[in-house]
Amino acid sequence: MNDVVWLHHSLPRTAWFELTPEEQARREEAFRAQRELSLRQGASRQGRFHVRGQGDYSHVEIWYFPSAEHAFDHWSRLVAAGYTACFEFSNQVGTAAEPAAPSA
Q1: CB proximity list for 36: less than 8 A, separation 6 or greater
Q2: What is the pTM of this model?
Q3: Whose CB among 8, 30, 39, 104 lies 3.0–4.6 Å from 61's, allowing a Cys bridge?
Q4: Tell me, what CATH number does 36's domain have?
Q5: What is the number of helices (H) and of strands (E) in the chain?
Q6: Is 102 part of any domain?
Q7: What is the gyration radius of the CA atoms in the chain, in angstroms?
Q8: Is residue 71 within 8 Å of residue 6, measured between CB atoms?
Q9: Residue 41 forms part of a structural domain
Q10: Is residue 101 part of a domain?
Q11: Tens place of pLDDT for every residue, the chain, 104 residues?
């Protein structure tokens, strides 16, 4: 059971749109590789959602991690892959406020 939730809000920076399609594809592949590594290390991704409303971001990703350290490692690897040069972001990490219900 993963008890740590990570909410990642994002919005492409102007620099993202200035990249060639080939460079965007290379960057996306680098980011995908880091996400895949996190999944292999025990994280679970609940999805990426397009969001609208009175906020600063266009997408939110919801992840669960075995620990806050796993979430931090995930983010550190994305940063090293150049993610923050391409996207504005906001991250939130939280723990369960109540125990999860048993699976049926």
Answers
A1: none
A2: 0.86
A3: 8
A4: 3.30.70.100
A5: 4, 4
A6: no
A7: 15
A8: yes
A9: yes
A10: no
A11: 678 999 999 999 999 999 999 999 999 999 999 999 999 999 999 999 998 877 789 999 999 999 999 999 999 999 999 999 999 999 999 997 776 666 66
